[in-house]
Amino acid sequence: MLYRLQRLEFLYGDENISNEDIHLTDEQLPELLEQLSNSGKALLADENGLYFANANFHHEAAEELGLLASEVAKMEDGHRLLIRNNLHINNSAWGICDPSGQSELTFFPLYIGETKLILVIGGMPDLNKEAFVTLVKVLYHRYGSRQQTI
After folding, report:
1. Cβ distance 62 to 144 under 8 Å?
2. Helix, strand or coil for residue 12?
3. Out of the domains of life, which is the source (predicted)?
4. Which stretches within the chain are classed as H helix?
5. Per the confidence metrics, is the pTM higher than 0.85?
6. In b/e form, how buried is each residue of 83-100, taking b as 16+ CB within 10 angstroms?
7. pLDDT (tens digit, 9 = 90+) per residue, 113-134?
8. Is CATH 3.30.450.30 the right assignment for the domain spanning 25-144?
């Protein structure tokens, strides 16, 4: 299976592992986020609706989008059984599309360790690139290694 995925270029291996990009600051994240959309608009919010990285959304819109992302995540949680079991849609991303079906605004939940984040993309998402891999590595470095303490 792994071999076939590599042949189809869904997966690739890298002999030289680079850890230089996992230490990006919050100020550097927007440069990474804008590569994930054809319009250059994207933001990251936590499940409470607070955004911490914004690429090219106006500040007021980013605040509202963070809150909307939180509500979309709650809606997805509330309707998960219907969507997966009854409709057989095994996807947790939500989007707003234009009449031709092209994405205008998409909400992608990202689960990093115990942390749930929402990636909001304005325009057509472009996640099939190195910028998304780097984003996941950065977020995993920040949130994935946290230990739960009781």
Report:
1. no
2. coil
3. Bacteria
4. 2-7, 29-33, 59-78, 80-81, 130-139
5. no
6. eeeeeeeeebebeeeeee
7. 888 899 999 999 988 888 888 8
8. yes
